[in-house]
Design brief:
By secondary structure, the protein is an alpha/beta fold. It has one domain: Glycerol-3-phosphate (1)-acyltransferase. Helix content is 36%, strand content 15%. It has a 7-stranded mixed β-sheet, sandwiched between helices. The longest helix has 25 residues. The protein is globular.
């Protein structure tokens, strides 16, 4: 007999995301010098969307494990099919199919916000440069549907890879996580509203990355592509 397939819960229980914040410091801080900037800018209550750049493997782990509030992050479904899958479910993260309209993932994300939780997204859906040129409209859609403020986040230093484990920065390297000021978009519906909100958020995220690099003294540090090329040489 075939075993029944378990359906994904529409909204991951809030206590699962709390687990990530409890174990995150023990998993991450012994290996890297992680500095959080502007964590006080994240609203302490109510729905919030964290929107970050995505240059390297470690970005999501930093936001899930060290953000000032528990985060339910939208993560590509491929990560759930490997050895990390059970852990991601246990930590209350949201699986999303990036190749189609994943209604279950959308409902789960909106449910997190309706319950006053924190949703984490990479607006471009995958690793990319920091210009957000390929940003999807999902971020604006979630913000307008929920009325939740968007907090831009910059993860810096994660793309300067080490030599022993190429997906990760070298041990004890300094990593900066910079939270920006919340952006209030209000509520809205329709394609024009979403497109306009996306353009505004694209500019906000680009500007935040630039300011974060200056604030942390990383303005002249090579970008992800340059860093990867340097490692391969």
């Amino acid at each position: 007999m075939n075993k029944p397939v378990k359906e994904r819960p529409l909204v991951p229980p809030p206590h699962k995301a709390v687990r990530a914040r409890r174990i995150g410091p023990f998993v991450l801080r012994p290996f890297w010098k992680i500095v959080l900037h502007g964590a006080e800018r994240v609203p302490v209550t109510g729905p919030v969307i964290l929107a970050g750049n995505h240059n390297a493997y470690l970005d999501g782990l930093l936001l899930v494990g060290l953000s000032p509030r528990p985060v339910h992050f939208m993560i590509k479904q491929e990560m759930f099919s490997g050895p990390m899958g059970p852990a991601l479910h246990w930590l209350g993260q949201i699986s999303i199919d990036r190749h189609r309209t994943d209604r279950a993932a959308i409902q789960a994300a909106l449910g997190v916000l309706e319950q006053g939780g924190v949703l984490g997204v990479f607006p471009e859906g995958t690793r990319s440069a920091e210009d957000f040129a390929t940003m999807h409209n999902g971020l604006a859609y979630f913000a307008l549907r929920s009325g939740a403020p968007v907090v831009p986040v910059a993860c810096l230093g994660t793309d300067v890879r080490g030599t022993s484990v190429k997906k990760l920065p070298k041990l004890r390297a300094r990593l900066d996580v910079v939270f920006g000021s919340p952006v209030e978009l209000g509520r809205g519906t329709g394609r024009k509203a979403v497109d306009a909100a996306s353009e505004r958020l694209r500019d906000v995220l680009r500007t935040h990355i630039e300011h974060a690099r200056m604030e942390t003294g990383r303005a002249s540090i090579p970008q992800a592509g340059d860093a990867a090329a340097a490692v391969e040489q």
